[in-house]
Design brief:
The chain is mainly beta. The chain is built from 1 helix and 64 strands. Among the domains are: 33-206; 538-609, Sandwich (Immunoglobulin-like), CATH 2.60.40. The chain is elongated, with a radius of gyration of 39 Å.
Length: 610
């Protein structure tokens, strides 16, 4: 059996140690609560005399609660760095105090953090970041954060979250998204400055007001407007090497405008709508993506001076609904239709094209909006459906294939219509009328030429002129059926004959119109009166010649052709030297025309074979 020995001194030491631990722990708890008393200089954060603990929060203690009364304006001096890891930051929610930051504040949290009842004026650097891999939220309750022209707010992988009130963040300086993690601003955000995304993705998901600003988005990153309540205005500039995505609703108020001057990948609209009574002007690149969501333009004027992509050619059943809108494609504007249909929804809508509208892809594309064209509309493949009216003015040009005019649509041509791309067939359904317009026909061969086929059943009035572009030498009496209307009668008011020059000859065509077709027939071939001999550029000898004709040129030749005076091609071949000879042994005696194509143009000379 063991004997226990009692030491009263040891028992007293244990009690004393326990008491000291309690005192130390109590002091630690008290040190975590800082209250601004203003008993020092009354304004400076780094003056220990201004705090109840006679020490400075976030400078001497990184994890603490801070309380500042409503009557104070507290300044963080330049050159000072404060670091906050945890704890509440509290002012007064009714009459908030003001914190002026001229130094650097690192809000570096390991868990969700709370800010309440403060006005923070940032003139330098504020970092919102986290030191853990899990999600971290910064909760704002009646907080106003003003970022001045000199200020930078760096958001690194955390969310700025509403926790009551509007909590405006007003940016005149720079919002910087850094770090690989995603970040979201859920508060009321107003931008008049710069937003830069260097890593990860930044989303604007609260109530947003985006005015004139600079947006720089690095490769592999994105800036997303996800809010259903975003008002936009002003001039947007910068460079988008990543993506700037619209996934929420954008409002352009009446009498205001937005101008897209973003370089690089521009703006991309994925869903929702742009509406209001203002004007959106695209000077660079705007993409309306062909994902599964329909989009809408409502009550706005959309002006395009740059490149506008409707679809990307990967999905062909989405549409953009148009409600009470005016769409103007200016002379420098290019619109690519690649999978998103224009659909009439309500109100008065119109498309005024002064530039280029290009239908691309093998799928069908439909415009259910009245179109006035004074520029170029080109259809490169698939059906291009017009469910409303197409008015081609006297300066407008329609090029391509497979124009379809649905029962409520009609096509009035006062300008130029050119079937096919180089040469090809344009199929027109519905209603077609040409009033003092131009039917432009390319002829590249005996069976290679433009044709307009009308597959509708309404009678047509065709008046104006026919313009022929020759890259082939037809022969007398050769015919080209250029307009066919098997199911509807044609009434024409066209010239009885037309001509076209090709390689020194003028080809005269009779225009033969009947009830269902228009045909061109070669009536006569003569020397082109517009062609001239350039003696300083071109000489031949001897002339008259027996068999070998010598030539001398000042420019590099490409090929030669010998024609009879009635336009028949008799000889042709390549020429490589500026000086040489051409054999005429295969042609009989008589008068001929020698044509030589050179790097400066076409040269001609009359020659005599004896």
């Amino acid at each position: 059996m063991k004997t226990q020995v009692y030491f009263p001194q040891l028992h007293l030491l244990k009690k004393l140690f326990f008491f000291l631990v309690v005192i130390m722990f109590s002091n630690k708890i008290n040190a975590q609560n800082f209250t601004f008393t203003g008993n020092g200089d009354g304004t400076t954060w780094t003056d220990p005399g201004n705090w109840n603990t006679n020490s400075v929060p976030y400078l001497d203690d990184f994890s603490c609660d801070v309380n500042i009364g409503s009557q104070y304006t507290v300044t963080i001096p330049s050159g000072v760095t404060l670091k906050r890891e945890s704890g509440a930051f509290i002012g007064n929610s009714t009459t908030p105090p003001t914190i002026i930051n001229n130094g650097t504040i690192d809000f570096d949290s390991q868990a969700n953090s709370h800010f309440s009842g403060l006005i923070i004026q940032n003139n330098s650097i504020i970092n919102f970041k986290k030191s853990v891999s899990s999600s971290v939220l910064f909760y704002f309750y009646r907080i106003t954060l003003n970022n001045s022209l000199q200020g930078t707010i760096n958001i690194n992988g955390v969310d700025l979250q509403n926790n009551g009130g509007t909590n405006p963040i007003n940016n005149l300086g720079k919002i910087l998204k850094s770090g690989s993690g995603d970040a979201t601003i859920f508060t009321h955000f107003t931008n008049d400055g710069e937003i830069e995304v260097t890593e990860g993705n930044l989303s604007l998901s609260g109530t947003n007001t985006l005015r004139t600003g600079i947006f720089n988005i690095s490769t592999g990153t994105s800036l997303n407007i996800n809010s259903s309540n975003t008002t936009i205005s002003g001039n947007w500039s910068g460079t988008v090497n990543g993506s700037f995505d619209i996934r929420g609703n954008l409002t352009i108020s009446t009498s205001t405008s937005v101008v897209n001057n973003l370089d690089g990948n521009g703006l991309t609209m994925h869903s929702n709508m742009i509406f209001g009574g203002g004007t959106f002007t695209n000077n660079k690149l705007f993409n309306i993506n062909t994902d599964t969501a329909n989009k809408r333009l409502s009550g706005i004027t959309f002006e395009n001076n740059g490149i506008l992509n409707f679809g990307d050619g990967t999905y062909f059943t989405t549409r953009i609904d148009i409600s009470n809108c005016t769409f103007v494609n200016k002379p420098t504007g290019v619109v690519h239709l690649k999978g998103t249909n224009f659909n009439y929804d309500w109100g008065t809508n119109s498309i005024n094209n002064q530039g280029l509208i290009k239908k691309e892809g093998t799928f069908a594309e439909t415009l259910d909006i009245p179109v006035t064209n004074s520029g170029i509309i080109e259809s490169t493949g698939g059906n291009f459906n017009f469910a409303s009216n197409l008015n081609n003015t006297n300066t407008g040009k329609i090029i391509g294939e497979n124009l379809q005019f649905l029962p409520n649509g009609y096509f009035v041509n006062n300008g130029s219509v050119s079937p096919g791309l180089n040469t090809g067939t344009m199929t027109v359904a519905g209603y077609f009328e040409m009033v003092n317009g131009i039917l432009e026909i390319d002829i590249d061969g005996n069976t290679i030429y433009d044709v307009l086929n009308y597959s509708g059943t309404r009678a047509q009035n065709i008046s104006g002129i026919i313009k022929i572009n020759l890259s082939y030498a037809p022969i007398v009496n050769q015919e080209f059926s250029i307009y066919n209307s098997p199911s509807a009668t044609i009434t024409t008011n066209l010239p009885s004959s037309v001509y076209s020059d090709f390689e020194g000859f003028r080809y005269h065509f009779d225009v033969i119109s009947n009830a269902n077709s228009i045909t061109l027939k070669v009536r006569e071939i003569a020397l082109a009166t517009t062609s001239t001999e350039i003696s300083s550029e071109f000489s031949v000898y001897p002339n008259p010649v027996v068999d070998h004709l010598n030539y001398s040129l000042t420019s590099s030749p490409q090929k030669y052709s010998v024609f009879s005076l009635d336009g028949r091609l008799l000889l042709s071949g390549e020429l490589k030297e500026k000086n040489g000879s051409i054999s005429l042994s295969k042609i009989s005696k008589g008068n001929y025309l020698l044509i030589i194509n050179t790097e400066i143009g076409i040269l001609r000379k009359k020659i005599i074979k004896k």
